[in-house]
Design brief:
alpha+beta; 5 helices; 110 residues; Arc Repressor Mutant, subunit A; single chain; three-stranded antiparallel β-sheet
């Protein structure tokens, strides 16, 4: 279970894969369509898709040379967005605290 969660986190930490997953989560998509939307080449899209597949987030259906990607877990996209918002707020608090500490240290040195 822990290993599965790590794979999911690693897969979604990349901005391109997160965007890819969001699009696929909305509707099944041909891999070349995803590549066009994300402005990347098909081989790069395929590599990102393989990582999402390995994390069990999407599945690839092959029809001859056509690869259609579909989401296996629609709920996780919402969870990923909520987590990103929380992390962003936390980083902002840390940044603000560091800036405040820098000002205090600067004033002490003066």
């Amino acid at each position: 279970m822990l290993m599965d969660n790590l794979k999911i986190l690693n897969a979604l930490e990349n901005e391109t894969r997160l965007k890819m997953f969001k699009h696929i989560n909305e509707q099944d998509m041909h891999i070349s369509h995803v590549a066009r939307i994300l402005d990347i080449c098909v081989p790069v899209a395929s590599k990102h898709a393989a990582i999402l597949e390995d994390a069990n987030l999407i599945e690839r259906k092959v029809f001859g040379k056509t690869h259609v990607l579909s989401s296996k877990n629609k709920k996780i996209c919402k969870l990923a967005e909520e987590s990103k918002e929380v992390i962003t707020r936390d980083y902002q608090r840390i940044f603000d605290t560091v800036e405040s500490l820098k000002r205090i240290v600067s004033n002490d040195d003066a």
